[in-house]
Amino acid sequence: MNPCPCGYLTDPEHDCHCHPSEIIRYQKRASGPLLDRIDLHLEVPRVKFEKLESEELAENSQTIRQRIQLARNIQSQRFLNDKIIDNSEMSPEQIRKYWSDG
Q: With b meaning 16 or more CB within 10 Å and e meaning fewer, what string describes 57-71?
């Protein structure tokens, strides 16, 4: 959803002229129960038309698939003795074990 009624609240190239109360009212339109089911919230910047129109080749599906398979293989090896399959199943203890700051 847009961050405000005009859509320019976080846009670096356009000024948002929405009043703060309009922004709050607009953002409250998304229901709490719906938002409670969304674990990840990201801000996605506007893509310029020129980039969308570009004929530059993007990464193909096979290359993406290979990269994903490599990541899944790494996870399988990491969790070989942990009785889990992927990162989403990790316990807090496993997070500390595999991703410590030290």
A: eeeeeeeeeeeeeee
User: Phi and psi at residue 64, in whole multiples of 5°?
Assistant: -65, -45
**pLDDT at residue 36, as a whole number:** 81
What are the pLDDT digits (tens) for 31-56? Answer: 778 878 888 878 888 888 888 888 88
* Pairwise CA distance, residues 102 & 93, whole Å: 15
pLDDT score of 66 more than 70: yes
In whole angstroms, give the CA distance from residue 81 to residue 98.
13
Q: Could you tell me if 3 and 10 are in contact, meaning their C-beta atoms sit under 8 angstroms apart?
A: yes
CB 98 within 8 A of CB 90: yes
> What are phi and psi for residue 57, nearest 5 degrees?
-75, 135
- Residue 80: exposed, middle, or buried by beta-carbon count in 10 A (0-12, 13-18, 19+)? exposed
